[in-house]
Amino acid sequence: MGAEESLPGDGPAPEMHHYYSKFMRECPSGQLSLHEFKKLLGLQGLDPQGEMYITRVFDIFDLNEDGFIDFLEFIAAINLVIRGKIDQKLKWYFKLYDADGNGCIDKKELLSIFAAIQAINGHTNMSAEEFTNVIFQKIDLNNDGELTLEEFINGVEKDKELMELIEKSFDLSNILKVIQTGRRNSI
Predict the structure, then answer these.
(1) Which of 4, 32, 71, 122 has the highest CB neighbour number within 10 Å of its CB?
(2) DSSP class of residue 187?
(3) DSSP letter, residue 34
(4) Locate the EF-hand domain: which residues (predicted)?
(5) Please, what is the angle between helix 71-83 and helix 13-26, to 10°?
(6) Which of 126, 125, 128, 124 has the alpha carbon at shortest distance from 114?
């Protein structure tokens, strides 16, 4: 049985087929490069901070780190955004913030990634500095200036306001809408 065939009652098969068709239409090679990813989302010509953010998102979606997002990685990313449980999303956010990959987030990393997200999303009611200070003030319990994954998840899960702030600030639904409806600027 081919990958596109499905048995009756298979659950999300029609949705999967829809995404597969869109993915292959946008990316006939089956491999989405960073350049194609930016083009798909209509995010060419960003400022350096915006470029940094979209590159981090791409790198995190590129699970096998081969420089391309294939269909399985694409579906994993969509599933995380749509159906991901909160702890999965928090792990994803942590990975996004932890730019140097050392397993801790420091203020500089958080400030940098939040400023980059602001450059893309454009709407926020607090500065990158305020956002960073709020996060560290609320969840850096040992005041060492770094957040471990455990501190981050525990701190955010215990604080409803902080959870809402993070979810709003790092909302990927705009990226998902573009993926679902096709290119922002159709050719």
Answers:
(1) 32
(2) -
(3) H
(4) 49-84, 85-120, 127-162
(5) 130
(6) 128
| Domains held by the chain: number | 1
Residue 66, Cβ density class (10 Å: 0-12 exposed, 13-18 middle, ≥19 buried): exposed
Q: Which two tokens stand for residue 187?
A: 């050719």
pLDDT of residue 165: 78
What pLDDT score does 170 carry? 66
- Asked if residue 84 is part of any domain, the answer here is yes
User: Is residue 9 in some structural domain?
Assistant: no
Q: 100 — phi, psi (to 5°)? A: -90, -5
List 106's β-bridge partners, or say none. 146
- For residue 5, tell me if it sits in a domain: no
Could you tell me the two tokens for 60?
A: 């995190």
Domain assignment of residue 144, given as a range: 15-180
Ranges of residues in the chain with a pLDDT under 70 are 1-16, 119-124, 169-187
32 phi/psi in degrees, rounded to 5: -95, 115
Q: For residue range 11-22, what is the model confidence (pLDDT) as tens digits?
A: 445 566 777 887
